[in-house]
Fold:
Amino acid sequence: MPQKMLPFPLICLNRNNKLNNKAFTLVELLIAVSIFSVVSIAIYSTFSSGSSVLRRIKNIDLAQQKILLKAERFSRQLREQPDCRKKLFLGAKSKISFAGNLNYFPSRITYYFDGPSLCLMRVEDKLDKIITPEGKLDPELKAKPTVFLSKVKEVAFSYLYLDLNKNKYSWAEKWDQDYLPVAVRFTITAGNQEYASTVFLPKTQ
Structure:
């Protein structure tokens, strides 16, 4: 009688062909852990040094960005200063004053470099606080100064005007005329970096 075919073939395992598996010895395990530790330390050292360099670069970039933002704010205030009947614009080598608006109130804005603290200071004086009973303008600063930019070595201003005698434009380190100069150039030195910009002022009628 013929034998019936099984639906699935039987897989017969030969008991004599057993797999001969061996585990790691303690010495091999210690060697593997040592190699892994050395590689991990090398990777961590490389990553740590790269992170410190990146951190220093970011700090330099942030410092430069801060100077650029402050300089842009100062330039915008110079360009947008309102026309004022009182003589508010006065310029020196390390100090400048001009007309401005403090919360929509006519004011005098003053910037000056404070050498001992190495800071560019800002003072906002409202006109009603600096005009004397005689109607004159008090040159003294009344409001409390605030730090506009810190950690700077030097801040210098110069003023462009048309010299009618020489019929050419010249720069001056001081400005006390009744009219605005053509432009103001300011230089900010911080660390080993120097930022310079020239701001052309609006023409007064």
Residues 8-19 have pLDDT under 50 and may be disordered. The CA atoms of residues 9 and 195 lie 86 Å apart. The helical segments are 26-79, 127-130.
